[in-house]
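Bench notes, afternoon.
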Amino acid sequence: MLRRNQETNNINNMETQQGTQLKDLVKEKYGQIADQSKETNATSCCGAGGCGTMDYTIMADDYTSLEGYVKDADLGLGCGLPTEHALIKAGDTVVDLGSGAGNDCFVARSLTGPSGRVIGVDFTDRMIERARENARKMGFSNVEFRQGDIENLPLGGGVADVVVSNCVFNLVPNKKQAFAETFRVLKPGGHFSISDIVLSGELPEGLQKSAEMYAGCVAGAIQKEEYLALIRDAGFKNLRLQKEKRIEIPDEILLQFIDAAALNDFKSGKSGIFSITVYAEKGEACCAPGCCGN
């Protein structure tokens, strides 16, 4: 028994160490990207940090037609348009997980109106600084940004009517804990709309092991059904896919991580990388007689 407990502790310690290393990588990469424009990321496969780095904009959808769009806040880092599908109403409190330079927060604010409130949470200090700079320039008094870890949100319970997030949960080592935190901060009856990257089939080994692709939201992806199961296991109800699209990564990027034979096998097979936008609800509080077994 003691030996089994020691082995379990060793595994847990290893997972914690790996998670810390991945978080450090994400903070470093996205700190660099925070000082670049969307155009810089889009026009160079070198991206942030030198040649050989993932082009971070290839999965992004076009925000420019959405009300509330702020060009300086759009770094092209998303893989969907969660705010477009989030059913945000005037007066809502909206929390954006992984808020970056504030792109989704400013779109959400246009929907909540002046009576609402928007809170962005990001892991990277420089992203928070840039988002606050953008908010000050726009004169927004009901949008705030907090530095924090999605696995341990700097928010009280039951504060949000709506949670949104755009291509961020892939960067979180403990996705189970991240969904538990999302559930915690939502009000009873609240809901989320999250865009993220999932897999169908297995990635080639070279992509799975690449830290660069992890920071680009690919190698951290999990199977679609596993992802949806984590949401259900966190207690969410009425889950539905709002949008799904296949992500086509250019060959010249993939060949930085795998050889030509592995690339051919990957592209000719049924496996693939997909962006999904998923919606789910936190049930109403239990209060009626006979509710929850009472």
